Amino acid sequence: MNIDHLNIRLVAALVVGIFFCQEALVHPSAYPCGREGIWIQTLGSGDLDIKDDRAAESYLVWIDNNAVLLVGAGEGSGTRFSETGADLTTLDAILLPRTSVAHVAALPSLIGSSRRAYRERKLTILGPTGSDTVLSTSELINRMFDPDGPYPELASISDVTNPFGFTLRTQDVLAVGSETWKEFGTNQYLVSALPVRHREAPTLAWRIDFKYETPAPTTTEEEAENERDWSMSTEPAKSTVYSDYAIVFASGFGGVSHAFIKFAMDADVIVFSHALPEGATSRARENFLEPKEIGEIAATADVRFIILGGRGWRTFGRELKTKEIIEKSYDGTIILPDDLDCWGL
Questions:
Q1: 245-301 pLDDT per residue, tens
Q2: What separation in angstroms does the CA of 297 have from each of 239, 277, 281?
Q3: How far is Cα 41 from Cα 24, in angstroms, rounded to an integer?
Q4: In what order do the strands lie in the sheet with 168-173?
Q5: What is the rounded CA–CA span in Å between residue 331 and residue 56?
Q6: pLDDT digits (tens, 9 = 90+) for 91-114
Q7: At residue 241, what are phi and psi to the nearest 5 degrees?
Q8: Which one of 24, 152, 261, 312 is CB 3.0 to 4.6 Å from 30, fit for a cystine?
Q9: With contact defined as beta carbons under 8 Å apart, do 94 and 124 qualify?
Q10: Structural Rg of the chain based on CA atoms
């Protein structure tokens, strides 16, 4: 091979490399979330349609590179959870909007694959109460992991000593009325829930309010010695204080609700299920919001941006029209996510 041919190949390789770098830069799903701060990641951006090449609706909340909350466990979200590099040991809770297959299909596989996660504390699962025709969250989990249930090989998750290393803690949250539930949280965040309307299925909207301090920066012995040489201060290093942030998950409900607007007021982001185009039938609107309603709610609640997840056959290909309708009343950022996309607050 002569020098000219070698140079041509090197140039071609460089061009290809630049092309792939550019491709990666415009696809946020090619990278994990940031290592500091609060992030929301879309695990599944679709619905139960097997032809859309997307996992069903589900989301992961990160704090300082730790996955702390899983919202929904739709089909395919277990695989996406693994692809993010998330660690099950850092997960505090799973929040279920409903107990339908669209939101719980991945639970057995997620639990089943956790034998080598080396988790030592209980995993909390929060979800709605049931009705005459719909199982409550505790009933669903009990049946799912019962020795006589559909997954008897996972029944040992209920035992104190089991190969998983942890047990499940399940709590039903009242899914009727208009009262806000606030009984779960840590020193970093508070979880709230509000009943919303999804025809006859008990359904919850979730809100996570964050206010916490990051650990003070660590100091080596050498750095501490040098500091004592020039500083007379004896005060400990102050930690960085995050401002208040809030994320609201509205995964599937119909009708503009004043209670929900109050619940979502001043949040940074609302995550909507965008399953309907404008002009949907009245029966479908009992389950989901139209774009016009999404825009009105987002504008009234005064949120910085919205994420339109849970997209399906009704809304694919109509994204531009959807944004045009929403922008008539809402002037914030509108995001139409793909699986594994991530945004920081």
A1: 999 999 877 777 889 999 999 999 999 988 777 877 767 677 778 899 999 999 999
A2: 36, 16, 20
A3: 17
A4: 168-173, 123-128, 93-95, 66-71, 58-63, 38-44, 342-344
A5: 28
A6: 999 999 989 888 888 898 888 888
A7: -100, 125
A8: 24
A9: yes
A10: 23
Beta strands in 225-294, from DSSP E residues, in sequence order: 245-250, 269-273
Nearest to 191 by CA among 211, 205, 206, 180: 206
For residue 81, give the nearest of 37, 111, 51 by alpha carbon.
111
Read off the pTM.
0.81
At 122-146, the pLDDT tens digits run 999 999 999 989 999 999 999 998 9
| Residue written as token pair 């290809």 | 16
Cα separation, 84 vs 62, whole angstroms: 11
**Could you tell me which of 142, 172, 165, 166 has the C-alpha nearest to residue 155?**
142
The pairing of beta strand 181-185 with beta strand 168-173: unpaired
Q: Residue 90: count other Cβ atoms within 10 Å of its Cβ.
A: 14
* pLDDT for residue 75 is more than 70: yes
User: What would the pLDDT profile of 33-58 be if each residue is shown by its tens digit?
Assistant: 888 899 999 998 877 777 777 888 89
Are 71 and 59 contacting, i.e. CB atoms less than 8 angstroms apart?
A: yes
Paired with 269 in beta bridges are 247, 305
